[in-house]
Amino acid sequence: MKLKEFASQLGLSPTTVSRALSGYPEVSEKTRKRVAEEAVRLGYRPNINAVRLVTGRAGAIGVIMGRTGEFHFAEFMSGMAERLDGEDIDILVSPTADRDATDEISLYNRLVTSGRVDAVIVHSPKPNDERIALLHGLGFPFLVHGRSETDVPHAWIDIDNESAIRRATSHLIDLGHRRIAMINGRHGRTFSLHRDKGYRDALQERGIPFDPRLVAHDHFTDELGFRYSRSFLEQSPRPTAFVAGSMMTALGIYRAVRSRGLVVGKDVSVIAHDDVFPYLTAENMVPSLSATRSSMRAAGARSADLVLQLLGGRPAEEIHELWTVELILRESTGPAPAEAQS
Amino acid sequence: MKLKEFASQLGLSPTTVSRALSGYPEVSEKTRKRVAEEAVRLGYRPNINAVRLVTGRAGAIGVIMGRTGEFHFAEFMSGMAERLDGEDIDILVSPTADRDATDEISLYNRLVTSGRVDAVIVHSPKPNDERIALLHGLGFPFLVHGRSETDVPHAWIDIDNESAIRRATSHLIDLGHRRIAMINGRHGRTFSLHRDKGYRDALQERGIPFDPRLVAHDHFTDELGFRYSRSFLEQSPRPTAFVAGSMMTALGIYRAVRSRGLVVGKDVSVIAHDDVFPYLTAENMVPSLSATRSSMRAAGARSADLVLQLLGGRPAEEIHELWTVELILRESTGPAPAEAQS
DNA sequence: TTGAAAGCGTTACCAT
DNA sequence: ATGGTAACGCTTTCAA
């Protein structure tokens, strides 16, 4: 059923029907109501592609998914979906990225210039992120999930990684730990740098020298968590505590600690960052995992919300949101073992 | 840059340019080449929404994401994205589902009648799935990831869950296990039923009575894996082996077994289904996890491929693909403990 | 092999 | 408060 046909069945003009359905104020309440009811009854729905053509709006928010199946991603998107429910906006996942940087840029370029999305969300930015420069240059609406150090004014939402890791590290120091290892995220990403800074500042405040041999940067997988922590534990003196970037990393650390005949929470303390997954819970680990905690799903929902505001005309430079991260202490952290105290 | 403007810069008509870019045969090779080069040079790209309106194609495949942040989902989509790279087709994730069944149906209805997608992928079907009936009724192209028992002819791709679990269970029986617990997926989903059947058939073949107290159906989370296995282990006699639906479930089982002072691979054997995640590896667990194994990412890639074929005109009733599942034995499975043998 | 012109189904401007 | 009509940018007959 097309607008013309539908309108003539109602004895109205296409114009009036269109206005009634789009909620324009100048249409009478009575008419609006009748149109709405008949639309449902007769099953009329505007052709989305015609609407898109004429309005220039795509009705979708773009997300570019990295090649590496990030487990965070599904949670974030699920949060977006939650918020976008009821709005007439979809999530468009663009095939591929992460081959090399040039490619990624051209991918963003194609996506935004193709008119398939009204805005995009940029994940895991670098301090000087090319994607941000590109999008700003194109004058295209975007929200950064994470932070950069660019001068370009833009909308962003982020968690306070630096403070979270500083507190986590300080707490370990309070417990008497001196050799604290850190398994961080990928090199060059701002969130990794922030976590590095929080870690180093905490050490420095207490006069503990920074030892680069206790720090790793990589993807968040159980395997890498295992490998790095295993190799750190082979050092002498060995670290008595770990700060880790993800739940998966923590799983690897737990394994490594056990494999050395050590006990988490006693011989080795562990704090990891928990994005709050429904399928893997810090509290349920054995021993339960102390964690810096912030819901990825909530971030996704709020991101969608902010993008909506952006599209609604709110200035990008006004949209900056920094979320506090909880530090939840559980059984995986305890006093540094006596023999390890120097 | 619009077609008209671009065409006039080339000294050609819009018609010819359009044909050249769309690869129509009647345009001369020389012209086609020139048009293609100039398009790149001048940065002309057809307005996607105009194309969509006039062709009636949406250029997107729809996926409906459940409310529960399924960790499988990201891998599947990532596989889709991999295959769709280079094609001019996006993945459209539709906000929400999983509230109640009626709602989900109306959601599918809206999605496909809205013209935003050319096809949809249906996940985790039930034997008599309303979504399949709906889509078939609407004559809308779709691919089912999983199987149903409906008479409606349709395209599907699935793994051989029944055979996988039968082999897994049989193997445990070969090892002397008699009390084998099963932590399966959600009630009512075909894949859960297939796994149930594989499990029961294996028992029956060897004359082992089926005990409903050893079976659970639920979401795949570490917490539920822990809770069910914990409660099973409290039975007397306790089960000596577990068959589990996911890696997360397996994590929970490992914890529960340890919490009882038992040892996986010795006191209790475990086989779980592994969808092959980059961030959590069966081989790396301690002890390494025996698993039925099939790559979710590969399924996603192949699904995208099959949808493309479907849209290319291949009849749906011709598209049935059943993937064999590997059974990989590692350290989590061993002979039933002597004292437990009856 | 190329071009002119008629749609595709809406929205939004300008009238009334 | 309602209606006529010109876009929106492209593809696709129909002609040449």
Characterize this entry briefly.
Chains A, B: This is Transcriptional regulator. Chains A, B: Pfam families: LacI, Peripla_BP_3. The first copy, chain A, contains twelve helices and twelve strands.
What does this structure look like?
Two copies of one chain form a homodimer. Chain A starts with a helix and ends in a 14-residue tail after the last strand. Chain A folds into three domains: 3-46, 434 Repressor (Amino-terminal Domain) (Orthogonal Bundle), CATH 1.10.260.40; 57-159 and 297-323, Response regulator (Rossmann fold), CATH 3.40.50.2300; 161-294, Rossmann fold, CATH 3.40.50. In chain A, strand 6, helix 9 (190-205) and strand 7 form a beta-alpha-beta unit. Chain A is 43% helix and 15% strand. Chain A is built from twelve helices and twelve strands. The first copy, chain A, is of the alpha/beta class. In chain A, helix 2 crosses helix 3, helix 5 (71-84) crosses helix 12 and helix 8 (161-174) runs parallel beside helix 9 (190-205). At the A-B interface, helix 4, helix 5, strand 2, helix 10 and helix 11 of A face helix 4, helix 5, strand 2, helix 10 and helix 11 of B. Strand 2 (90-94) of chain A pairs antiparallel with strand 2 of chain B, so a sheet runs across the interface. The structure holds a DNA duplex (16 and 16 nucleotides). Chains A, B: Pfam families: LacI, Peripla_BP_3.
